[in-house]
Specification:
Elements (H helix, E strand, L loop, with lengths): L2 H12 L21 H7 L5 H17 L13 H12 L4 H8 L3 H5 L3 H8 L1 H10 L10 H18 L2 H15 L6 H21 L3 H15 L1 H17 L1 H18 L4 E6 L2 H11 L10 E7 L2 H14 L1 E2 L5 E2 L12 E6 L5 E8 H9 L1 H4 L8 H5 L4 H13 L3 H11 L4 E5 L5 E5 L4 H8 L1 H5 L1 E6 L2 E3 L11 E5 L16 H33 L12 H11 L4 H9 L5 H14 L6 H9 L9 E4 L7 E3 L11 E5 L5 E5 L3 H9 L4 E6 L7 E10 L4 H11 L3 E6 L8 E10 L2 H12 L4 E7 L2
Parallel strand pairs: 2-6, 12-16, 13-15
Antiparallel strand pairs: 1-2, 3-5, 4-5, 5-6, 7-8, 9-10, 9-11, 14-15, 14-16, 17-19, 17-20, 18-19
Helix pairs in contact: 1-17, 2-4, 3-5, 4-5, 4-10, 5-8, 5-10, 7-8, 8-9, 8-10, 9-20, 9-21, 10-11, 10-12, 11-12, 12-13, 13-15, 14-16, 20-21, 20-24, 21-24, 24-26, 24-27, 24-28, 25-27, 30-31
């Protein structure tokens, strides 16, 4: 069965109510006790063998929930039956219906996954397991447990989207019956629904579910506002009934004249969407003009554009209010032509034009396209809908091990607005509104994002943080040696870009810390007269002995702990040398001499060479900002990178008194790889062009200004300029200060050392 034949079955129900204009707002069905007989009526699309499996699942769930009741007082089994009924409305297969009936069996009834596999098979058991929370595990906070449960569900969804469809049905029924629970639980569930489940429904194109979840959540969180707006909408509906009827007659007459067969349906904004528009645009209810709209459903794709021409000849279009989502579909697969026209009475009316298949997808989204039992190649095409986002969950999971961080990335991607940009080869990419050139680079490929150095938009060079707009042609420039910049995290918009940057930075930090730890331990072992044993088969038993003593799981973890100060290299070296002596390895006299020579000031204290390329494993202290030529020392904080201070830094001296064993000798490399920042204060006479003269002098001395602070003090005869400048070494800094002193407005200039 292909997509078209499958959609053909959906169209009669999807097109109900489109023959005449309907002005009733979408309201959730009234909750009522669900019966299995009513569910069977909905499952007429299943075969007899499948219905038998559904009956077995119902009996199993009924027995498992025997004696359990909902907060409303109804038998608990009514909830799984209602969820299965919603799943049946989407015409999902027997496995999904069975999983809906048993979705709480593992969580609430102590049923194991093994039992479900033996009774109903692995696919159904996997669906139920993906829907089961992780409440039985211990988490430090409720939020952490919730985040881990979301991660489990979303990753199960990435493997099989039926998991999220069943979960959305579960949440819809819970929200319909939410009045039975306590106000605190009700508010928490409504907020969670509004922030997570409604956006997921929208992301997957389930617009009916999306609107209902939003409406029910809004009614729970803001009952007074919802009631007031609902009454205002009811009054407006009565006042505008004549306008709607006249527009409907004009539209039907125009299409009859053009000999285009159409179905015209009414569309009314929900109370929540009106509230959001009023809040975002700071308008009153009376100023919200497009409360009502029309949906035009035609037979073919070509007729969509013919219908657009008919409407534009009938009424005048509003400039800038036309959108073609057929040529460029939304991320969730939604396709329609949107146009806003001015009615005879001067009011703006929006029209949506689409084919029957597009309408089925617009209302049911991924549920309309997901073919589980298809035996032809169309099933691959059906899964294309939503695949980009669903698969991106797996990419984010690969880069993110923390559940809370994973949920944060997913929330970032749950945004309804998109911009459409082009690659230089005219390929269209859809990105969230506010996305930047870096987001674009990571959307192409993670390697492109990691090595991005510059970007051009419409042929013009732009900053990487520049926001993109629809229609922009974006070109990314890469360099082989480039790395992601931590500052990118301040402006990237997509969860994919954020997770890739964080993953790369963490990996880079681990690699650098590993190398730093190995260097420190090697130096410490040299002071003991021994070489650091390599990590090979011959030394495996020795390293296992060291790891048992240190409490680390792996050699790399031990080296990282040494690099960030959790373990002292000299102590580890002494213990390692002790184990080596027990195995018969003796200190080497030459090595011992080298070790002592390399650490005159403190026996066993290793020497680290600073050249500016150390990255995350070594930081220069911002209190004293050392530069090449300064006498420096290194401090290994607990769980931090090696921090380099000047010897005369007052902060360093205070720390040395508290923690003397954590200090070590460090030295500058003969040829540092980059300039270093230092702080300078300049006292100047106030006057026109003073800042320009100072900046020109610093530039003439071949130094760069990286930051300027003029303070907030009111203007007076003299002012202090506090600058950060990048210099090569102390000699270069002396040249800069000498040049600045020659400026006429400069009264005094000095380096800030602490």
């Amino acid at each position: 069965m292909g997509i078209r034949s499958f959609a053909a079955e959906l169209l009669p129900s999807a097109l109900q109510g489109l023959q005449r204009v309907t002005t009733a707002a979408p309201v959730a069905p009234k909750p009522q006790a669900a019966s299995f007989a009513a569910l069977l009526d909905k499952l007429s699309y299943l075969g007899k063998p499948e219905l038998k499996l559904v009956r077995d699942a119902y009996k199993f769930a009924d027995e498992a929930h025997l004696g359990q009741f909902r907060d409303s007082g109804e038998p608990y089994i009514t909830h799984p039956i209602a969820v299965a009924g919603l799943v049946a409305d989407w015409r999902l297969d027997a496995q999904a219906v069975m999983a809906a009936l048993m979705h709480d069996a593992m969580e609430d009834c102590g049923i194991t996954k093994t039992q479900l596999i033996e009774r109903f098979g692995a696919p159904t058991a996997d669906l139920v397991d993906g829907l089961t929370k992780l409440d039985k595990l211990r988490f430090s906070t409720r939020e952490e447990g919730q985040a881990e449960s979301f991660r489990k569900m979303l990753l199960a969804m990435a493997r099989d989207v039926r998991v999220i469809l069943i979960k959305l049905a579960d949440r819809m029924h819970n929200m319909r019956t939410v009045q039975a629970i306590t106000p605190e639980r009700r508010a928490r569930m409504a907020r969670e629904t509004l922030e997570i489940y409604a956006p997921i429904a929208h992301r997957l194109g389930l617009n009916q579910a999306f609107r209902e979840l939003q409406e029910l959540s809004f009614a729970c969180l803001n009952p007074w506002r919802h009631a007031a707006l609902a009454k205002a909408l009811e009054r407006a509906r009565g006042h505008r009934r004549d306008i709607v009827a006249r527009v409907e007659q004009d539209v039907l007459r125009a299409f009859a004249t053009a000999r285009i067969k159409v179905q015209v349906g009414g569309r009314e904004k929900t109370v929540y969407s009106i509230y959001r528009k009023m809040r975002d645009k700071h308008t009153s209810f009376a100023q919200v003009s497009d409360i009502f709209g029309f949906r035009i459903v035609v037979g073919t794709l070509n007729e969509c554009y013919l219908a657009l021409g008919v409407l534009h000849q009938l009424y005048k279009p509003v400039p800038g209010r036309f959108k073609d989502y057929i040529a460029i579909p939304k991320l969730n697969g939604y396709q329609s032509l949107h146009t806003t026209l001015v009615s005879p009475l001067g009011t703006a009316v929006e029209f949506q034009i689409r084919t029957g298949l597009m309408h089925a997808v617009a209302e049911s989204g991924i549920a309309a396209h997901w073919l589980y039992k298809a035996k032809d190649k169309d099933s691959d095409e059906a899964q294309r809908l939503g695949t980009m986002w669903v698969q991106s969950l797996l990419d984010i999971q690969d880069d993110t091990r923390d559940a809370t961080e994973f949920l944060e990335h997913v929330k970032i991607d749950l945004v309804p607005d998109e911009v459409y940009v082009f690659t230089p080869k005219s390929k269209i990419l859809s990105l969230p509104r506010g996305a930047t050139a870096v987001d674009f680079a990571y959307a192409i490929h993670s390697d492109v994002g990691d090595h991005t150095v510059a970007a051009r938009v419409n042929g013009e060079p732009v900053a990487l943080r520049t926001e993109l707009h629809s229609g922009d042609v974006v070109e990314v420039i890469t360099a082989a040696g480039a790395r992601p910049n931590p500052a990118w995290l301040n402006f990237v918009r997509t969860g994919r870009a954020r997770s890739k940057i964080r993953h790369h930075l963490k990996t880079m930090e681990i690699e650098e810390s590993h190398a730093m730890g190995e260097r420190l331990l090697t130096q410490a072992m040299r002071a003991e007269g021994l070489r650091l044993p390599p990590d090979d088969a011959a030394n495996q038993a020795l390293w296992q002995q060291v790891l048992r003593w240190s409490g680390n799981r792996a050699r790399g973890e031990l080296l990282t702990d040494i690099a960030i100060g959790r373990k002292i290299a000299t102590i580890v070296a002494k213990q390692l040398s002790k184990f080596m002596l027990e195995q018969g390895t003796r200190p080497d006299a030459v090595m011992l001499t080298l070790g002592r020579y390399a650490s005159d000031d403190g026996p066993g204290q290793p020497l680290v060479v600073v050249d500016g390329s150390e990255g995350a494993s070594l930081h220069l202290a911002t209190c004293c900002r050392p530069i090449p030529g300064d006498a420096i020392v290194g401090y290994l904080g607990r769980g931090e990178a090696l921090l380099v201070h000047t010897v005369e830094c007052r902060v360093a001296r205070k720390q040395a008194e508290k923690d003397p064993e954590r200090w070590m000798r460090v030295e500058w490399a003969e040829e540092p790889t980059r300039p270093f920042e230092t702080a300078v204060t300049i006292l100047v006479r106030n006057g026109k062009g003073v800042l320009a003269q100072v900046a020109s002098a610093i530039s003439a001395a071949q130094a760069d200004i990286t930051h300027i602070d003029m303070g907030e003090a009111p203007a007076s005869e003299a002012a202090e300029l506090r600058l950060l400048i990048a210099v090569r070494d102390r000699q270069h800094l002396a040249d800069v200060l000498r040049t600045v002193r020659r400026c006429p407005p400069v009264l005094r200039v000095w380096r800030v050392k602490s």
